[in-house]
Amino acid sequence: MDYMDNIRNKLALLPDLPGCYLMKNEEGTIIYVGKAKVLKNRVRSYFTGSHNGKTQRLVANIVDFEYIVTSSNMEALILECNLIKKHMPRYNVLLKDDKTFPYLKITNEAHPRLEVTRRVIKDKAKYFGPYPNAYAAHQTKKLLDRMYPLRKCGVMPKEVCLYYHMGQCLAPCEKEVPKSAYEEITQSIAGFLGGGHEAVKKDLQKKMQEAAEELYFERAKELRDQIIHIDALMEKQKINTADTKDRDVFGYAVDKGWMCVQILYMRQGKMIQRHSSVFPFYGEAYSDFISYVTQYYSENPALPQEILLPETVLEGTDTSGKPQMAVSGEAEGTDTEDTPDTVAELAAEASGEAEAAEAATEGTVDAAGGAAALQEWLGVKVLVPQRGLKKQMVGMACQNGRVALDEKFRLIERDEERTSGAASSLGQSLGLESLSRIEAFDNSNIQGTNPVSAMVVFIDGKPARKEYRKYKVRSVQGPDDYETMREVIRRRYERVLKENLPQPDLIVVDGGKGQISSAIDILQNELGLYIPVCGLVKDDKHRTAQLLVGDSAEPVSLARDSQEFYLLQRIQDEVHRFAITFHREQRGKSMVTSKLDSIPGIGEKRRKLLLKHFGSLKKIKEAAIEDFRPLSIGDKLAAQILDALKDEEPSL
Q1: CA–CA separation, 155 vs 177, rounded Å?
Q2: 481-519, pLDDT tens digit by residue?
Q3: Do the strands 544-549 and 462-463 form a parallel or antiparallel pair, or are they unpaired?
Q4: What is the DSSP letter of 151?
Q5: Which DSSP string do the residues of 568-607 spell out, in sequence order?
Q6: Do the beta carbons of residue 432 and residue 506 sit within 8 Å?
Q7: Is the pTM of the predicted complex or chain greater than 0.85?
Q8: Which of 82-96, 269-283, 366-380, 406-420 has the lowest mean pLDDT?
Q9: For 181, how many CA atoms within 13 A lie in the half-sphere containing its CB?
Q10: Residue whose C-alpha is closest to residue 626's, from 639, 644, 616
Q11: CB contact burial 102-117 (16+ within 10 A = b; e otherwise)
Q12: Is 68 exposed, middle or buried (0-12, 13-18, 19+ CB in 10 A)?
């Protein structure tokens, strides 16, 4: 029974219940995790009808699936989040560990400290945030350190330090500080970060006037500087609401298989930051959007009072209409890291019910279900506003997502135009009528050991990675770069002629006159091919320095800051990287082989069996004697293998 028969049988048994499904490839690896309001409808939709290009790529790799039934949409939402974290599927939107947001933390210690952290743990400390970038978090901490005298040192010193004399520490190292003093400072910091900076500002202004009247001008200047810092950090915002609630406003846009999610951070009714994320998605857009939001709040437990979500966005469209607000270019803390995001929405009125019904027929988690599940799980209001200022804020987030995607595509188009133009200009500099296809070669060996060569292909200035080729050098003994080049050029273009493959407009070799002459000799005198050959010479710092053309190796003058020179650098760097990577692979295999072959009782058959069973030399070293028994290797030989490998030096 082939895998499609197995899938058909499983599809027939799917229940009409909510839950999560796990798609697997032919190796049994989980490549996608999704959730559904109705498993039967949603999972079937992958194997019926047409899909866009990215979803087709996912579906083409599915050979099996599993599913887990849940009792509610909320359980499906949380389960999906946990499964994604556990399996890190290739086609899911992922929140990576290095993309977590920074927080301000007041530690739970006898003498607490204020610090910036990216890890939120249950340690009874007080956390404030998240901040969209580390700069904003550190600047805020710097301001608070000046204003509030919490302990600054990591280890308690034996005597008072400079911070005490500056009035920025209570000197718990020498003085008894009552718990009430720390509680008062903690409450003040919490009030400040919660939006009470206006009251703090008024208090500082009063103290500044008093200090000036008493002729304490240095103290007055310090207080004035603190007021300036508060203005700089807390007043760079353009959007206000009538209330003083903390909100996270989500918006997203999708086009050409890409999604952009925007998060606007409203604190005390004022927009203070925004965060932008652009990433490819492979599943259903809204479902992937919800997945990201779930992951986002599982990693960022400092919740706002309210979350605003958009309605379902169709690919290539903008549902924001004509927003009356737009994010100013002065907004601070914008972060464009590629971090995935996802959101749910409360269902609309009659205009949105048709879309909700269509989604339900596919079994997807609809807007109402997703928002309700998030609200139940997080314990805060999750709304999809239908009118008024909140609707405009969500529209603004969606509009900024649309602008960010358009900008990305324009940059890609501009880069392609410049790259294609660079190839054309390079062809003109070399006197070629057209220069579309470039094939570049590089050799790699260490004192003649494990000699290899590699070829990369650039078409219209862009790498065509599917056409890259690797070569194990067969006939050359020792470090002979010229003979290696002759062998590889011969093998490549004999195959080009034999299989009628496309011929390049230019061949690029790594090296000077000797490498160029070797390549031309094989092409013209053995194969009858007259393809232009050029060489790239590096300087003493291993950087591309000069372009040489023809058997006479005449230099071609190219400006160092030109697009043509930059294209040649990219080609040389890429072929060198590809060759070095291949050489390291071969050298690693050779070292493993030599280590195992040196052990008495281990021949080629047993060596292959060991590597296939354990996977690597490291895992063989870590194995126990009983782990060798399934391979019909006795305890005595297993002990010899382990002893021999322990005596070996670790491979570099």
Answers
A1: 17
A2: 888 899 999 999 999 999 999 999 999 998 888 899 999
A3: unpaired
A4: B
A5: HHHHHHHHHHHHHHHHHHHHHHHHHHHHHHTSTT--HHHH
A6: yes
A7: no
A8: 406-420
A9: 15
A10: 639
A11: bbbbbbeeebbebbbb
A12: middle
Q: Residue 525, SS3?
A: helix
57 beta partners = none
Reduced to 3 states, what is the DSSP secondary structure of residue 381? strand
CB 69, CB 17: distance < 8 Å: yes
| H or E stretch covering 166 | none
- H/E stretch holding 112 reads none
The owner of tokens 């009430």 is: 180
Q: Average of pLDDT values for 62-82?
A: 88
Name every residue whose Cβ is closer than 8 Å to that of residue 566 and which is 6 or more positions away in sequence. 422
The helix (H) or strand (E) run that includes residue 70 is none
For residues 209-221, b (16+ Cβ closer than 10 Å) or e, as one string? Answer: eebeeeeeeebbe
Pairwise pLDDT comparison (471 vs 612), residue with the higher score: 471
Whose tokens are 């206000």? That residue is: 240
- pLDDT single digits (tens) 580-633: 887 677 655 554 455 666 677 777 778 778 877 887 777 887 788 888 888 888
Rounded CA-CA distance 575/570 in Å is 9
Q: Using omega within 30 degrees of 0 as the cis cutoff, is the peptide bond preceding 130 cis?
A: yes
pLDDT tens profile 22-62:
999 988 899 999 998 889 888 988 888 777 667 788 888 89
> Which residues fall within 8 angstroms of residue 353, CB to CB, at 6 or more apart?
347
Residue type, 466: K
364 phi and psi, to 5 degrees?
-75, 160
pLDDT tens, position by position, 151-178: 888 777 777 888 877 777 888 888 888 8
CA 102/CA 14 separation, integer angstroms:
42
State phi, psi for 148 to the nearest 5 degrees.
-125, 130
DSSP structure class, residue 467: G
Over residues 89-99, mean pLDDT: 71
Tell me the average pLDDT of the chain.
77
For residue 597, the model assigns a pLDDT of 63
Contacts of 369 (CB under 8 A, 6+ apart): 37, 73, 344
Tell me, what's the pLDDT at 544? 66
| The pLDDT value given to residue 316 | 57
Reported for 483-486, long-range contacts at CB under 8 A and 24+ positions apart, including other chains, are: 483/518, 484/443, 484/445, 484/451, 484/453, 485/441, 485/443, 485/453, 485/509, 485/511, 485/515, 485/518, 485/519, 486/518, 486/519, 486/521, 486/522
Alpha-carbon span 369 to 382, nearest angstrom: 11
Mean pLDDT of 263-277: 78
At 37, the amino acid letter reads K
Query: What does each C-alpha distance from 554 to 255, 430, 518, 546 come to in angstroms?
Result: 48, 11, 16, 10
Q: How confident is the model at residue 1 (pLDDT cuts 50, 70, 90)?
A: very low
Tokens found for residue 256: 């050409």
Q: Which positions ≥6 away from 161 have C-beta within 8 Å? A: 152, 153, 169, 173
